[in-house]
Specification:
This protein is an alpha/beta fold. The chain has two domains: 204 residues, Vaccinia Virus protein VP39 (Rossmann fold, 3-Layer(aba) Sandwich), CATH 3.40.50.150; 205 residues, P-loop containing nucleotide triphosphate hydrolases (Rossmann fold), CATH 3.40.50. It is built from 17 helices and 16 strands. A seven-stranded mixed beta sheet has the order 3-2-1-4-5-7-6, sandwiched between helices. α14 links the parallel β14 and β15. The longest helix has 18 residues. The mean pLDDT is 94.
């Protein structure tokens, strides 16, 4: 909300919405839906500090306190009268604070930052999401909801039938909100449609006023009384039902600084790329599942040799057969639990490079694929792909699989002879950054790895949205 006058009109409209709680049927439904998604995203973890933006009269705030009664909640809004109404709920362990979501004035870290139906009011939602993400502790969750384009479609159709230009706000399209996701955060947007029946078109108009949502879009004047009654009657003829299009997003900040290295296939160069990253970033290396030890020394010892001086953590499971980790473990009668595959703790200032086995759809355990582990860990992925013929299908399918699970992709590394056409196609169609290209190495040695590692970006560059 960069227009000060428009911003003030919105603030006054919400402050005057004395009947908000009685009219906010959709807002209450969205609050429950967002809270349920937040519970799933936290997966049993109990937040100790929660920041809520745009708390309004406290619909979501109450649910937060109910779900996590021991958490300290900071509930904020930029409309002082809304805050006053919320404070009357006497929600335990909650501090109410006047704050504009676009310019946070609180200090983190928080385990949860959330806001119900706030983002559509902000003029720079992507930048706000980045700022809010910066207030999260490692592994913290940012959960928001927003209205989408298509909301009030019936009212807009009635306006068109009467030759009247609607003054309702422009809401973002579903494709636009993908760019709001904070960089390298894991998570997905989910959308739903809700239809609310009103007794008449004028009842819908009164509903907007009661909930503080009657402010016309910036630069537009409110509809005149005569035109308003004509449009309301037209809406009556179509049944006086209104559709709301909503989107919910839950995004997790990486629990540690680092990446998960996976590939489009086995033998594609994941270990070489991992060694380069470990060398470039002076990172800690962890290969949680290692198979094929009957035929080779294993990737942990390889990285320890190639990235000389690297700290390498022991695998959670190491098996002899050259099979998928799941099949190799089964052959030995072994079982690796999800608890054994929890990310190791890393001291502040250190980076962690985790190397997977095979590609994203390789079975890791009886219950989990490598893709599942990527989603559980919440680390951004570095995808290693061959540079030559056949890589387009494998790479684009792998990117699609990762994104379908909400896994953040830091970039792709191409391994093999340079292929400008494939590089360009993967970058454009995959909408991904090419982090590096690793050419043929006649002799694999610490010196050759050090030379290749120098071509990889610094960690700070990886953390910067391209």
């Amino acid at each position: 909300m960069t227009d000060p006058q428009h911003r003030e009109r919105i603030r006054r409209s919400f402050d005057r919405a004395e009947g908000y709680d009685g009219a906010a049927t959709l807002q209450r439904l969205a609050a429950h839906s967002l809270a349920a998604r937040l519970v799933r995203a936290l997966d049993g973890r109990k937040p100790t500090r929660i920041l809520e933006i745009g708390c309004g009269t406290g619909l979501l705030t109450e649910l937060l306190a109910r779900n996590w009664p021991e958490a300290q909640i900071v509930a904020t809004d930029f409309a002082p009268q809304m805050l006053e109404r919320a404070s009357r709920r006497a929600i335990p362990r909650t501090e109410f604070k006047l704050m504009d979501a676009a310019n946070p004035t609180v200090e983190g870290p928080f385990d949860v930052v959330c806001g119900n139906l706030v983002m559509q009011w902000l003029e720079q939602p992507a930048q706000v999401m980045e700022r809010l993400g910066g207030l999260l502790a490692p592994g913290g969750v940012l959960a928001v909801s927003t209205l989408l384009d298509g909301t009030f479609a019936e009212w807009k159709a009635a306006c068109a039938s009467e030759g009247v230009q609607p003054a309702t706000p422009h809401y973002p399209q579903a494709g636009q909100i993908q760019a709001w996701t904070p960089w390298l955060f894991a998570g997905l947007w989910e959308s739903e449609s809700c239809v609310q029946a009103f007794g008449s078109g004028l009842e819908f108009v009164r509903h907007l006023k009661a909930t503080g949502a009657s402010v016309p879009q910036a630069g537009r004047k409110p509809m005149g009384a005569v035109a308003l009654r004509r449009v309301a009657r037209r809406l009556d003829h179509s049944g006086a039902a209104i559709t709301w299009q909503l989107a919910y997003g839950c995004f997790r900040k990486p629990p540690v600084a680092g990446v998960f290295v996976t590939g489009t296939d086995t033998g594609v160069g994941k270990t070489l790329v991992s060694a380069c990253l470990v060398r470039r970033w002076q990172a800690i290396y962890w290969k949680p599942l290692q198979s094929g030890l009957a035929d080779e020394a294993g990737d942990t010892s390889t990285v320890a040799h190639l990235a000389q001086g690297a700290e390498c953590l022991p695998p959670a499971g190491a098996f002899q057969a050259s099979l998928s980790p799941q099949a190799a473990a089964e052959a030995e009668g072994a079982h690796v639990s999800r608890a054994q595959l929890a990310l190791p703790e890393v001291e502040d200032g250190r980076l962690l490079v985790v190397e997977g086995a095979g590609g994203v759809m390789v079975p890791a355990t009886d219950e989990l694929m490598m893709l599942d582990l990527a989603a559980i860990w919440g680390l951004p992925v570095v995808l290693v792909a061959r540079s030559g013929l056949g890589t387009l299908n494998h790479t684009l399918l792998s990117l699609q699989a990762l994104r379908s699970r909400g896994v953040a992709v830091a970039g792709v590394v191409l391994n093999g002879p340079p292929n400008p056409a494939n590089r360009r196609t993967i970058a454009q169609l995959g909408k991904v950054r090419i982090l590096a290209e690793v050419g043929h190495m006649p002799a694999l040695s610490p010196a050759s790895v050090a030379e290749a590692a120098a071509t990889f970006p610094a960690w700070e560059a990886v953390c910067t949205r391209p």
